[in-house]
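My hope is that you will study the protein record below before we discuss the fold together.
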Amino acid sequence: MAFNIAVKRIYEPPAAEDGQRVLVDRIWPRGVSKQDAALTLWLKDIAPSDELRKWFGHEPARWAEFQERYRAELDGNGAAVTQLRGLLGNGKVTLLYGAHDEAHNNAVALAGYLRGR
């Protein structure tokens, strides 16, 4: 089954085509009100562990290994993955993140994980 998944910075304004908006960061992004975020869900539990997030430090050189380690964490996080897959069964889901790097962040890695399974 092909999931309809998009990835977007939470600092971009909400749009109708976003579908269900899910914040996948453990920490609330600075300067964004809960109202402006227009979230369907804040799924903190699916975010990388603090240890993994700090180790990665948004260093592109660590991206491949970050993805491997994060996939391993996701494999052991059935409840949160199942919750997100349930939303995907109801239509498009946009994974929201706060990082500056649009190519190397947990939402991109999570989308790849979900598409690959």
